[in-house]
Amino acid sequence: MAASEVSVTIDRRSILLGASAAALIGGMARAAQPDAFDPGEVWNDVSGVAINAHGGGLLRHGGRWWWHGEHKTAGEAGNTALVGVHAYSSADLVNWRDEGIALPVSDDPASPITRGCILERPKVVYNRRTRQFVMWFHLELKGRGYGAAQAGVAVADRPQGPFRFLHAGRVNPGIWPANATAEDKAPDTTLARDFSGGQMARDMTIFVDGDTAWHIYASEENATLQIARLAPDWTRHDGYYVRALPDGGNEAPALFKTKGRYYMFASGLTGWRPNPGRVYVADKVTGPWRPLGNPVRGSEEDRKTTFHSQSTFVLPLPPERPGAEPRFIFMADRWRPEIAIDGRYVWLPVEWEGETPVLRWRDRWTLVDGWKA
Questions:
Q1: Segment 329-372, tens digit of pLDDT
Q2: What is the CATH number of domain 45-169?
Q3: Domain map of the chain by residue range?
Q4: CA dist., res. 163 & res. 5, Å (int)
Q5: DSSP-derived pairing of the beta strands 365-366 and 310-317
Q6: Once rounded to an integer, what is the mean pLDDT over residues 75-97?
Q7: Measured between alpha carbons, how far is 269 from 223 in angstroms, rounded to an integer?
Q8: Is there a contact between 39 and 360 (Cβ–Cβ < 8 Å)?
Q9: What is the value of pTM for the model shown?
Q10: Long-range contacts of 157-160 (CB under 8 A, 24+ apart)
């Protein structure tokens, strides 16, 4: 199921315009059925260009679905942000229209989001109070590898942008987690080390629960997830946060809620290489979280690699009919760090074994048949 190897020459102009996706893999794509998902295959937009929205998330607004993700470019340099965050929209979740670059990187070398920074896992939510779209993302400053471990935020009046960058930084400086123990606060802990300057924030998502939004991110050198509440305008933290699954080594969190309980997909820490997926459950978004094991059902290879992918988001859908169960789509990425632009998307229906969400491979599926055994 691994993506095919390709080798081409792409000029700088085509990279920056995003046309390199078509040049790189145009001949490899097969046209999708109007209502069908083809996990792991090249996924073209309605103009025939490969969708370029990695590590992304979705929201519903104005009668359309909106997909925001990292715009990758060719080669290993494409793992840095050379363009920005790309936006697409769709009426049916299969056929996507290119809406352009929602948040471009800056040409100002003093900007935290200057070209060449690392900008990952953008998530956009709509705040009904402020009537603004709010984008959060994991940010690493240019030339510093993954040492900055910051969270960035931008806002816009429309889902396609343009988004206006507000600020970036560590999380909740000078504040202890609400559930921190005396042992957690000991001077030799990573939590205490980062107390004054703020907590590290790497792989992340934003989860909206009613009128409250939560920022969930890998922290403490990726050892522990932290779950931080956002202020009412959702552009900053309000100072309340907790440690979740301490020393569990989780990243790539993707949350959803159903039947009064909270579920979270995550992955282990193996860099760009895929690993066995994980799923957790809790009665409150702040936990405590209980492990439910590996959600993948399939071959040993499937279970070891989560279908050669890593979680990024869970999309809730309305029931197929009134009174039926809610439906959820597991969204994941197949990373190709050596050819960043050729990363692929793995979308699968979330199925259930009792109270445990599980994932099974589908070569092709539709919203009509995806949840049928």
A1: 999 999 999 999 999 999 999 999 999 999 999 999 999 888 77
A2: 2.115.10.20
A3: 45-169
A4: 35
A5: unpaired
A6: 97
A7: 9
A8: no
A9: 0.90
A10: 157/131, 157/132, 157/133, 158/133, 159/59, 159/61, 159/62, 159/66, 159/68, 159/87, 159/89, 159/99, 159/102, 159/124, 159/126, 159/133, 160/66, 160/87, 160/89, 160/99, 160/100, 160/102
